[in-house]
Amino acid sequence: QVQLVESGGGLVQAGGSLRLSCTASGIIFAINSMAWYRQAPGKQRELVASIGSSGRRDYADSVKGRFTITRDNGKSTVYLQMNALEPEDTAVYYCYVQYTQYWGQGTRVTVSS
Fold it and tell me: Is residue 92 within 8 Å of 80, Cβ to Cβ?
């Protein structure tokens, strides 16, 4: 079955950095578009960044210039490098195989001011 295992969340001070990882199994990773979503308390889940099979990347306006999404097809892993973190980035971050029903379990990111 499909599994998405996320890691890398934690507590960080504002201005700090974190790198999230999501390793997939049960899918042909290289042909799938991947994305990171986040859900803050009391808010709807929102798209943070996506990366296509060709490497094309898209970002939410709120994270442009601070976050970078990359992928390593050999490791079936997608990454989200998050720099200059702000308290508003506090959320549970989810890995997602685009255009499918497959989600990771989520990893919590807390940014303190």
Answer: no
